[in-house]
Amino acid sequence: MNTMLATFILISCSVIILINSDRPAECELPSKTGPCRAMFPSFYFNSTTEQCHEFVYGGCDGNGNRFETKDECLRHCVNQTTRTD
């Protein structure tokens, strides 16, 4: 029984690693509003939920996980084989 569980966990982890290996590194970054006070509606990819979420970008000192539209975020960060829309 323990061997079966260990095998299942190993296979599951391998699949997750293979699926995520195709994703650009910037898609793993957290959203970053930055210190400036502008209010640009933007989208970031949440690698935990595998979805693009809206946030407010301040206009400076952000990172590569920032997109102007949800569609742009999805095209950049979601593997084509896992898209559901």
UniProtKB/TrEMBL annotation:
InterPro entries reported for this sequence: Kunitz_BPTI, Kunitz_BPTI_sf, Prtase_inh_Kunz-CS, TFPI/VKTCI-like
Family matches, as CDD domains: Kunitz-type
Keywords, ordered alphabetically: Disulfide bond, Protease inhibitor, Signal
Residues of the BPTI/Kunitz inhibitor domain: 27-77
GO annotations of cellular component type: extracellular space
Ranges annotated as spanning the membrane: none
Entry's Gene Ontology molecular function annotations: serine-type endopeptidase inhibitor activity
Signal sequence extent: 1-21
The protein, known as: BPTI/Kunitz inhibitor domain-containing protein
